Amino acid sequence: MVRINRQEGTALLGIILVMMVLSFLGTSVFMNSNAELKINSHYTQSLRSLYAAEAGLQELLHHFRWNPEDFLQKKSGQDLGFPIAEPPAQNVPGSKYWLMDLRYDAQIPPNYAEIIIVGKEVGQNASCRIRATIYANADACSDGVPSIFKIGLATAGNFSLKTPGDIRSSVHANRGFSIEPSTVFDKLREQQFSVTQSQDPNRPDYQKPLLVPVISDKGFQEYQLKAQNFDSSFLGSQKLVLKGDQNNRIIYVNGDVTLDSDQVSGLTLAATGSITVNGSVVLADGGLLNSAFIAGGNILLKDFSEMSALFWSNQSVIAAATGKISGTMVSQESLSFGPGFQFVRVDSISDIYFPSDLTKYSFAVKGWSQF
Question: Does any domain span residue 331?
């Protein structure tokens, strides 16, 4: 009996030791599994946050590609419409991103922009920041006249015509157009002119957004230097009265300007502010377009009988009176016209002084890093 009891005690002790070992191993496996789950969960959150930040970077790159004027004008993240702090709701599936920092280089126009974008998974504390540099590559126009000036009527904004008029030109508006009555629209197509927009990709008249050039500070400086050769550089708002052929004269005004013209031709008028034109501007001999109105503000055609010129505005071109216009119009914000509007495109653009920085731009990301 004593031997049996000893054997039972030894067996019990062995069982206890085995149970302790198994319990220890089970606890270790559980703790390791729990740690791995936490590591995997943290890794997944970090990865989703990284993807969100990358999505924000690609969205900014896409914006600059289709709106290069925003890059050239060094617009802030808020002006671009990007969130500059953590948004209340997700802006990519399951995650969110925001623009923490956006800095352009000191050049005008800038060569690059340095950005920091933050990504974060919704409902989690983990976030990821990436730093990148977006470079702008400029390609000069081959013939000195960008193709957008040969369309006739082109704007980065919207085109509006709500009264009967006569248009003999192609039309493109990045943000859509409103042409009434519909007979105007039908007539344009019958005459083989194109009417396109970039607002709705599902419409048959959709075309990718066109690059609408901006008149930069450097461009205005070039106009100012050229105008000095004609003793025609003015500081502050001006009222000018001109008549006849100006022999390719360049006038520069640092401010707003009002021009009363009488059969004017051969004139380039560049103003950092708005330009108001009254009277008449005519084509050169042979039907060449050799006058231009180039404004940092609006161009207003107020009281005129005939206007034949290139109109290029960083804001809007507005024809507020009844009369005939021939040439080409390019604007950043909008093109709008009053009753009885008549416009005829002129393809022969001669002696128009485009600044040297009037170029096409492409954008690429370099120097990408996570931190």
Answer: yes
146 φ/ψ angles, rounded to the nearest 5 degrees: -60, 145
Cβ atoms of residues 284 and 265 within 8 Å: yes
Q: Is 190 helix (H, G, I), strand (E, B) or coil?
A: helix
199 in the same domain as 314:
yes
CB-side exposure of 191: number of CA atoms within 13 Å? Answer: 16
Q: Is the pTM of this model over 0.70?
A: no
Q: What is the mean pLDDT of the chain?
A: 84
Structural domain range at position 20: 1-141+359-371
Neighbours of 354 (CB within 10 A): 22
Distances (CA, A) of 245 to 97, 146, 291, 328: 57, 26, 10, 20
One-letter identity of residue 207? Q
* Residue 124 falls inside a structural domain: yes
**Which residues contact residue 34 at a Cβ distance below 8 angstroms, ignoring those fewer than 6 apart?**
none
Q: Do 88 and 159 have their domain in common?
A: no
- Are the C-beta atoms of 102 and 61 separated by less than 8 Å? no
Structure-model confidence comparison of residues 171 and 185, the more confident one: 171
Query: What is the helix (H) or strand (E) element at residue 25, kind and residue range?
Result: helix 2-66
Which three-class secondary structure state does DSSP give residue 40?
Answer: helix
227 falls within a domain: yes
Render the burial of 189-223: b for 16+ CB within 10 Å, e for the rest: eeeebebbbbeeeeeebeeebbbbbbbbeebbebb
Residue 45, both tokens: 């959150």
Picking from 305, 301, 344, the residue whose alpha carbon sits closest to that of residue 167 is 344
Query: Strands, DSSP E only, in 187-271?
Result: 195-197, 233-235, 238-254, 257-271
Burial-class residue 116 by CB neighbours within 10 Å (0-12, 13-18, 19+): middle
- Of the candidates 53, 68, 49, 72, the one whose C-alpha atom is nearest the C-alpha of residue 132 is 53
* Residues 211 and 232 placed together within one structural domain of the fold: yes
Q: What would the pLDDT profile of 217-241 be if each residue is shown by its tens digit?
A: 888 999 999 999 899 999 999 999 9
Same domain as 199, residue 315:
yes
